[in-house]
Write a structure and sequence with these properties.
alpha/beta, single chain, UDP-N-acetylmuramoyl-L-alanine:D-glutamate ligase, Protein-Tyrosine Phosphatase, Chain A, 2 domains, 11-stranded mixed β-sheet
Length: 405
């Protein structure tokens, strides 16, 4: 969610919408969507603002992605009797003062990994921007933090006195710190979804010992635990929140399975951490079959993440390097920088036409092979030079599948 450069005071009615704000590097959109799904157990409509769009329940309002557009959407929710909202907060919007322009009653932190350093310059500024959500929480609010993230203790320290703190942990990210309220003890992934077994700190809390989500991948364990605690902090009964998460649709463009046998998956992963985790999911599900990974990296953005993204794709049998949003940078230069992280890998190819790259992988895949197309997910545009063109990984993948017959 964007915000103005001059931070205005929130409108008088803003405090009437109980708002859950979600920030972090990966998983913001999914976590926000699942919190919104859970909030519908106690409020209708629920406003949901993410990088995908602004929604009242499942109705897309198609408003401008600006602070004025955000206020218009929130006002529509309020005027229609809504009492709750879930909003995704980017580091850029927080750096520009959004947490002061709109009050949040619950702040949720997903994780912090390498991304957006082109906008922030240093990891420290990136973290400081994310932390603004928690610094700005009022007394009586709740901060939901990731106790497996290395920044957990710092975020605890900057959260003001009088703010309730809740924590969750998934040990695959790191050893849990402190005494989290909810810890994932095992995560089982199949083509049908993800099951998470949990250790609950306080049995009297009513928090479940098992969660199910329809999204595919161990990475969704973090999102599910964060969403559950965020929704409960906003007033949703724990059993109702868990039930809503089990029923919620997997978010579009997040390990979205387009086809089975061969399995074709579209995912938004565009940072080294997200790509590594998504590739790991696909590798596990592919079992003894081949894994194809098609991806690139944006031009004129965070060049330091390119080699690590190549390293993240190493478990694949075939890696096809292509364009993402090259902007006015030479696509071949971007591909070479990514390829440096794949030095010695025998299955690396370069096809700078993204449509041809996706099509080639899908036409070559057989049987139980898995084709993972990463980087754009739900997006429907590609920026080449100064031109923004229509481009959908999902549409291209479906067209390639149609060619297979």
């Amino acid at each position: 969610m964007t915000s103005p450069r001059v931070v205005p005071a929130p409108p008088p009615w803003a405090s009437k919408l109980h708002t859950v704000g979600v920030t972090g590097t990966n998983g913001k959109t999914t976590t926000t969507a699942w919190i919104a799904a859970a909030l519908r157990a106690i409020s209708r409509p629920v406003a949901r603002a993410t990088t995908v769009g602004f929604f009242l329940d499942e109705v897309d309002l198609a408003i401008d992605k600006s602070y004025d557009g955000f206020l218009k959407g929130m006002r529509a929710c309020f005027d229609r009797g809504g009492t709750h909202a879930a909003i995704e907060l980017t580091s850029e919007s927080l750096a520009r003062g959004f947490a002061r322009a709109w009050p949040c009653h619950v702040g949720v932190f997903t994780n912090l990994t390498h991304d957006h350093l082109d906008a922030h310059g240093t990891p420290e500024h990136y973290l400081a921007s994310k932390a603004q959500l928690f610094v700005s929480l009022p007394a009586g609010a709740t901060a939901v933090l990731n106790a497996s993230d290395e920044n957990y203790e710092l975020l605890r320290e900057v959260t003001p006195a009088g703010v309730v703190q809740r924590a969750y942990a998934v040990p695959s990210r790191g050893t849990p710190q402190g005494e989290p309220d909810l810890v994932a003890t095992s995560v089982d992934v199949s083509w049908k979804g993800t099951r998470i077994a949990c250790d609950v700190k306080d049995p009297a809390s009513g928090l479940p010992r098992e969660l199910h989500v329809r999204a595919i991948g161990s990475v969704y364990a973090e999102n599910a635990l964060a969403a559950l605690l965020g929704a409960v902090a906003a007033g949703v009964p724990a059993d109702a929140a868990a039930g809503a998460l089990a029923e919620a649709a997997a978010p579009p463009g997040r390990f979205e399975v387009i086809h089975e046998r061969p399995y074709v998956v579209v995912d938004y992963a565009h940072s080294p951490d997200a790509l590594a985790r998504t590739v790991a999911i696909a590798r596990a599900l592919a079992s003894d079959a081949r894994l194809f990974v098609v991806f690139g990296a944006g031009g004129k953005r965070d060049r330091d993440k390119r080699r690590p993204m190549g390293e993240a794709a190493r478990p694949a049998d075939v890696v096809i390097l292509t364009t993402d949003n090259p902007r006015d940078e030479a696509p071949a230069d971007i591909a070479r920088a990514i390829a440096a992280g794949l030095d010695g890998h025998a299955g690396v190819r370069t096809e700078l036409d993204r449509e041809r790259a996706i099509t080639a992988a899908i036409l070559e895949a057989q049987g139980d092979d898995v084709v993972l197309v990463a980087g754009k997910g739900h997006e429907t545009e590609q920026i080449i030079g100064t031109e923004t063109r229509r481009f959908s990984d999902v549409e291209v993948a479906k067209a390639a599948l149609a060619r297979r017959g």
